[in-house]
Amino acid sequence: MRQYLAQKARYPDAILFFRLGDFYEMFFEDAVLVAEKLELTLTSRNKGDPDEVPMCGVPHHSAHHYLARLVEAGHKVAVCEQMEDPSAAKGIVRREVVRVVTPGVAIDETVLDPLAPRYLAGIAGGGGLALFDASTGDLRATDGLDGAALVSECARLEAKEVLLPQGVDSALEAALARTARVERRAPAPQGADADLDADAREALAALSAPAREASLAVLAYVREAQPAHGLPAIRVTAYRAIDRLVLDEAARRHLELVRTMAGERRGSLLGLLDRTVTASGARRLREDLLEPLVDVHQISRRLDVIEALVADPPRRDALAEALRGIADVDRIATRASLGAASPRDLRGLGDALGRSPAIRAALAGVPALEALQPPEDPDVAALGAEIVDAVVTDPPAVATGGGIFRRGRDARLDEVIDLMSGGKDLLLQLEAREREATGIGSLKVRFNQVFGYYIEVTRPNVPKVPPRFVRKQTVATGERYTTEELDGLQTRLLTAEERRKEIEKELFDALARRVAGLARALGHWAACAAQIDARRALADVAHRGSWCRPVVDGGLVTQIADGRHPVVEALDPSGSFVPNDTTLDGGDGPSLLVITGPNMAGKSTVLRQVALITLLAQMGSFVPARSARLGVCDRIFTRVGASDDLAGGRSTFMVEMREAAEILRSATRRSLVVLDEVGRGTSTFDGLSIAWAIGEHLHDAIRCRALFATHYHELVALAATHPRVANFNVAAREHGSDVVFLRKLVPGGTSHSYGIAVARMAGLPGSVLARARAVLESLESGQFEARAQGAQLDLFAAPAPSAPPADAVRDRLATVDVDATTPLEALRILAELKRL
Ligand code: ADP
Ligand code: MG
């Protein structure tokens, strides 16, 4: 317990997995917590004693599963191992924490999602932000971000853990803690980069001070988490958020980029695009999707690659064949540098590197594709060949049990293997030799558990036994002996198994160290393979869906002919998706499209399809359209009215308005803004006036390209006074008493919502429908004013006697609590008073 407490004191905020024989045990509060979280039995040590200690344990061979669940739940776990062989140790076995697994620092396969990166974020003064994926060694850093931007970057990259300097305001901490584990840390000490290789040190030195400080903070944390190994090989990239198309959190969610509103990968854009055949390719594709480009040249270079691949299906197939099933080289190289690679990992690495020639061949002949090739590195090639040569085809998952290497790798190992397989022969040979030497024909070499190997001689032959035979045991039928030679052979045989394990472990560690030494080159190789796979997947999707190459330029025009929503189209089995044309002109207009139409007409679909086509083009993909010309966007904002977003679980008007405010604050002329039923989360009057004002602001002040879907037909009037507003509606036609949705976007507004027809199709009783029709008629006979005046419309109340206006104004004013009224409410009240 003293040993336990000493280790626990060094890792007070971690759950300590304390190795005791075949178990990891937890004690005290750790035991109580873990027993509850993992539904394990809570027992105790020294039961009944005054010093009784709560305790629970997990078997070491399945510990990684328990560990993964704790880390997933946001805990930190320190793994404390036995550092000596218990049978050889004197006194208590030495134990040490060999690694700490935290939500942000994980390299274990069981903890990691093969299809997503895992980021640890570090924040420093001056808006410095560093994001580090310990499983691949990728470090990206930037600076100059304000609080909101820091939160949004961490959310975008789904950082699982964030390190905050002490003294930073707690509002930032609270915002970050919504999605990540947050830890306060002192700044990294001087010389915190001393153990990095020259390349990494140089790259760090080139960063701005805030970016560097944030980077050093994450590296210090990772180093502490790997006390036995220090840091893996690191690739540093400086990035600027403005070099990427900014997608705010609402846009990522609303556009269902990596998961649907219901949290599923299937049905998301990524679910459609991800035809990759490797895990690292899938991660790369995901990253490209979440940070599209803004540089038209870069975009065009990516499009060249897609075009070349779309045009050549056999080449695509060859690439898929060359890449399919290859191991996760990036993560394996990192595990190797942290001493955590398995024999299976190394063999996988060797096999993957063996695919290089096939990959190369499949890219050859087209300059745009050849540019993607992994560089020819003789060391990497030699390592791959060596592994394939040395390691068996299907090696074990652990390095300690032998069975990893083939014959011919090491003379000592070969000898041991021969000894093990040839042990029986050697014993027979010895037996034959002793029979001959002693002349005892019935002499036998035998084995039992108590005495091991012995020579048995029957009683009548005992006088012939030479003096070099040492008697071990007398039995009824004769005597049992041993000889020096037999003893030696016995020792060799019995220890052969152990020696084999030892030698193989030693060889394995040496090989893993060689992999670690080449980690940087291997990471580069893996990055190339991942990129090839990601591009190939996009080309595959483009080809199957008959997508087109977009023209992305520096203008402000979005012009899409026959655009489709990629996911809605793919999920529609009837193949009857109706394409639509959309033109937005951020120059002379029309730049703001107001789209009306009944429920279920297809308004949201049109909106999203424009945003998705823009995003796809900027990630360098073909797009689902007949043709598309897109002036590059700097940000895509989307906002979906509260009641359309129940799955997001944030259906409050407050959130809706906060996000609208964010759009109005940060949108630029070059942004694309998509507003779907904004204003829906409040009463009709509020909603309409807010929607109106937001539309005006987008048109007059921001002048960006914007799409505004609304069920407020009144917004159609914006076009009359605002030159760059155009009205469209998604056509529907009444067919008898049914509505037929034509799904076609046509110019002009609509005032018909077909709500009652839809209600009829949905099965509302006839009596209710008839009543609804009557009410509608009375409303449509010029009672818009009446509607506007009552914030809550009460159809069935008796008409109120009209009061003299002055009194009405005074009465209304009396209800206003000025201290508790926001400017927006005040404006609304003023508008209301004017109408009295
Ligand atoms: P709204 O926003 O007008 O209520 P949606 O855009 O949500 O309507 O569309 C409702 C449904 O109509 C979608 O789920 C989709 O199945 C179908 N739909 C929408 N647009 C199209 C289209 N262009 N072609 C075919 N089906 C469509
Ligand atoms: Mg909708």
Describe the structure.
The chain is α/β, with parallel strands linked by helices and 836 residues long. It is 44% helix and 18% strand. The chain has 30 helices and 27 strands. Helix 10 packs across helix 20.
Give the SSE map:
Blueprint lengths: L1 H9 L4 E6 L2 E5 H11 L4 E3 L7 E7 L3 H10 L4 E6 L12 E7 L18 E5 L3 E6 L4 E5 L4 H10 L4 E5 L4 H8 L3 E5 L12 H8 L3 H17 L9 E4 L7 E2 L1 H6 L14 H5 L5 H12 L5 H15 L2 H11 L5 H9 L5 H11 L2 H8 L3 H4 L7 H13 L20 H28 L5 E5 L3 E7 L11 E6 L2 E5 L1 H34 L1 H26 L6 E3 L3 E7 L2 H6 L8 E6 L6 E5 L6 H16 L8 E5 L3 E6 L12 H14 L5 E5 L7 H19 L2 E5 L8 H4 L3 E11 L2 E10 L7 H7 L4 H15 L3 H6 L15 H10 L8 H13 L1
Parallel strand pairs: 1-5, 7-10, 9-12, 10-11, 13-23, 18-22, 21-25, 21-26, 23-24, 24-25
Antiparallel strand pairs: 1-2, 2-4, 3-4, 5-6, 7-8, 8-9, 14-15, 15-17, 16-17, 19-20, 19-22, 26-27
Helix pairs in contact: 10-20, 11-20, 12-15, 12-20, 13-14, 13-19, 13-20, 14-17, 18-19
This protein binds adenosine-5'-diphosphate and magnesium ion.
